[in-house]
């Protein structure tokens, strides 16, 4: 037998041996049970709890269990998750009180009625009085927040009379004329928005105050009477 014939015979024998091994492996795989991998849908709550318990056990075994204390020396924190195998103590359960309407808001039927309080004559007089005081203290051009400041730089009577937001709200809503006809009247009178109350103010000043015999000075300017 030549060398080529012997080489062909050897390769043929190797090929036959390979087929025999594949058949043996195939028969073994048919008899052995397949490993079952749980999908995400098949994982139950019990599996998750068991996994968390194992994680807790692993964390606590790595190093000693310790707490971090708050400044009040009553609240303590830990970096490990709580042990799910132990029931949570009642003292560790936070019970928050839910918000609810009270006072006049209980009878309100719209958000506007809850947040807006109707004004009265006394409150409007208080607003006008604060405006007078602002001029008296030469603060008519000062920021309102500075007048209501509570750090010692403000004026106490302002914040004692009413809140700053209430004062700003009343000023924004204050009207002295009929807004529907203001445009027509303003074309003839620039003081149309306050003409009625301005005339009444001037008349009351004439009735209640008599200037002296000397010329009256207004803003450092002499006006002829």
From TrEMBL:
Pfam families: DDE_Tnp_1_7. InterPro entries: Death_dom (IPR000488), PGBD (IPR029526). Residues 76-131 form the Death domain. Residues 13-40 are annotated as: Disordered. One of its GO terms (biological process) is signal transduction. Residues 19-33 have a biased composition (Acidic residues). This is Death domain-containing protein. The lineage of its organism: Eukaryota, Metazoa, Ecdysozoa, Arthropoda, Hexapoda.
């Amino acid at each position: 037998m030549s060398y080529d014939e012997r080489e062909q015979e050897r390769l043929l024998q190797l090929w036959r041996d390979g087929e025999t091994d594949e058949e043996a492996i195939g028969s073994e795989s048919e008899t052995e049970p397949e490993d079952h991998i749980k999908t995400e849908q098949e994982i139950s709550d019990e599996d998750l709890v068991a996994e968390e318990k194992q994680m807790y056990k692993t964390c606590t075994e790595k190093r000693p269990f310790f707490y971090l204390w708050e400044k009040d020396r009553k609240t303590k924190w830990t970096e490990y998750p709580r042990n799910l195998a132990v029931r949570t103590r009642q003292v560790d359960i936070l019970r928050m009180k839910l918000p609810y309407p009270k006072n006049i808001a209980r009878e309100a039927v719209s958000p506007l009625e809850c947040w807006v309080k109707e004004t009265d004559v006394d409150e409007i007089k208080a607003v006008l009085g604060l405006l007078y005081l602002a001029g008296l203290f030469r603060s008519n051009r000062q920021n309102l927040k500075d007048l209501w400041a509570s750090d010692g730089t403000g004026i106490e009577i302002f914040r004692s009379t009413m809140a700053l937001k209430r004062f700003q709200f009343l000023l924004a809503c204050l009207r002295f004329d009929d807004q529907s006809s203001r445009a027509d009247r303003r074309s003839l009178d620039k003081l149309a928005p306050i003409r009625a109350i301005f005339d009444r103010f001037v008349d009351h000043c004439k009735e209640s105050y008599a200037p002296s015999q000397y010329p009256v000075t207004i803003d450092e300017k002499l006006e002829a009477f």
